[in-house]
Amino acid sequence: MTDLPFELIPLATVRVERGDIHRMGQTAFHRRVIGGIAEGRWEGERISGDIVPPGGDWAIPSGDGTIMLLEVRQVVRTDDGALIYVTYTGRADRGRGTYTVAPTFETDDERYSWLNSIQAVGQGRNDGDAIVYEMFEVR
Question: How much is the pTM?
């Protein structure tokens, strides 16, 4: 197969600064690490804005801590004032230092209503106290 059945369209570079981290330990269900988002930014041709509170990552680490299931929620206030709710799940491979995610979006702002119907994918890497993702719309 030479052609992929889909196309990846650049969406944004996203920088997520880590906030407070709460390690829950072994609960009745599993281990859980909750990491806040101190600040962040989406920067792209079609969407640019700041990540505003509240937001965070409700992660589940593997037994040896080398991989984590991610469940991230954030609110983006675009440079032109729209609010966009972003959620993504994915996996962090701490050995490789990568974060692979699948964002979805919700907004009532007509200028960004196209986001309500897309699926995105992204991969991030550690950059000091931040994770920097390259996000793409899947078409």
Answer: 0.90
